[in-house]
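Our platform keeps sequence and structure together, in a single record for each protein. Because each token names a local backbone shape, the row as a whole describes the fold. One such record is reproduced below, unchanged from the form in which we store it:
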Amino acid sequence: MLNSARRHRIALGLTAAGSALALAACGGGDPEPTETDTAAVEEVEETEEEEETTEVDASSFNQGPVPAEAPEIDEADLPAEPDSSAPLGDRIAWEALERISTFASVTDPDATAECPEIAGEEGESVTCTVNFLDEEFEYTINIESSGILINYGWEMPEGPLVREVVEDTLRAHTESEYVLCDMESDVERGETGGEAPFLCQSLDEESGDVSDWELSISQYGSFSFYSA
């Protein structure tokens, strides 16, 4: 809502009767402003500009401090990584949890990850399950070759989008304290290699302008905003 207040007061007076007679003799008309009159006008105009205020309704946005950078996890908050002597299934389970946590940019101390037994044979495909923030996510590996070293590709179809993280990422991107994502819940599922199932907005507190943003998710789980 814009609320402008203006006051316009300009007083130009004649200080001597002789001046009035001189104006009458010249056929009337407005006198040329003196330096003092011009300065008074400029001062009033500057006062008007200062008095113009913009009232912005930010009540529908979520306010928070603008972080210096987008959130990311601290791997020290994850469970200890199994060493090379641990069963392959345990090592892949930890990897699955690490990738899901990285996608979310937050750790869940109650998260669990389980994989079926993995033989490590070429052509083998195994799907692990990660329980993260009360949601289940799949993590699949496809073994391409085996031997002394096992080469495999991995797939993570979906990952958790956490409102607090997403909105803080937008704050860092726009440098605005006021943002809002129309998420149905505080944790939603996002498909890798696609778009998030919601839109976000940021508010320019000075101008009152609102910008719309879409969230793009890479096939590896990282995400970025672009103008909608």
About this structure: The chain is about 25% helix and 30% strand. The two ends are 24 Å apart (CA to CA).
